[in-house]
Amino acid sequence: MRAKILFILLLSVAAGRMTCAAEPSDSTKTETSRKNIISRIIEYFSESNRSYPTKKFDFSIIGGPHYSSDSKFGIGILGAGLYRSSANDTLTPVSQVSIYTDLTTAAHFKVGICGTHIFPGDAKRLTYDVSLSSISTRFWGIGYDECRDDNNDSKYKYLNAQVRANYRMRLGRHIYIGPLAAIDYIKGGNFEKPWLWHGEATHTFNLGVGALVEYDSRDNLNNAFHGTYLRLEQHFSPRFLGNKYAYSSTSFHASHYSPLWKGAILATTADCRFTYGNTPWGLLSTFGGSSSMRGYFEGRFRDKSVITACAELRQHVLGRSGVAIWGGAGTVFSRFSQINSRRILPNYGLGYRWEFKQRVNVRLDLGFGRGTTGFIFSINEAF
Description:
Layout (H helix, E strand, L loop, with lengths): L3 E2 L20 H21 L10 E12 L3 E12 L11 E10 L4 E10 L5 E16 L4 H5 L5 E19 L2 E15 L13 E14 L10 E11 L9 E13 L4 E14 L7 E2 L15 E2 L1 E14 L2 E13 L11 E13 L2 E10 L2 E8 L4
Antiparallel strand pairs: 1-2, 2-3, 3-4, 4-5, 5-6, 6-7, 7-8, 8-9, 9-10, 10-11, 11-12, 12-15, 13-14, 15-16, 16-17, 17-18, 18-19
């Protein structure tokens, strides 16, 4: 299994705004410039979480080199922006946008943008996620038994372009409803063990529409201290929209946040996704990666349906630093009759949090599962 190690070097665009001091010798100029660069970097990150009420768009960047046993050496950049749709409305939640890009020596490339735009008075919300990735990755098959078999571990190349968007209108206090749309282009190639795909098409284009209902009483979208978030989605990808693989899915998410003692938050979550019909292999339900069942290889376990649950204790420690510990479990299945104790996979871990911007954390998590360990560097909480 994957063991992912990230070495983070903080970078800053602030150094580019540096102005030189006056004239003495070239050596003095060089030393002054060097000090200015260092001081600019320190100043940039020391002030990145400050609030600027008069600033229309507060955007900061963090990134640098990293290494993992799967993607090898790479350069990654994460950016976070906070803004209000109405400068005079301080009661409406803050809108946020994140950009990310990553390029590695193992031909991993990913770039994307995601965020939530809150309209004035929080009367409407628009959430979006657009990404493009091209990676050399691994595949174990479809279904718990195939995915659990280490002998099925095989390599292939994966190209994925996706667009996700949903638009919600507020019906009452904390309740939102609206349409959603999804576009996916998935292409696989260079299969080391092609029989694990069971004869499915190597590439698919899928267009889906649907609707969602949402209850949201959280005090913050990125890093809630209290409140409840419930979301029910129904997705349809029918054949008359041009889909070769026609299927539908139902997803449900629930999370709750409770203060315990000074600086401590107990965050709990449960997720399930059920698909029906002819679900293409690239759109099956999976877990793993930076948000769900951290520590498992993203996409190792895949099937028509998935259920996961997690409880996480988040503790502020000092200044902008905090820690977290979590425990959870999950499983994949095609029929409910397949769920049993043998198929339920454990998940637990611990992490470090650093407040990059107000209520926007950079996190470094060390996750463990059944026969697996993984390091994760990401922005925003897992849920």
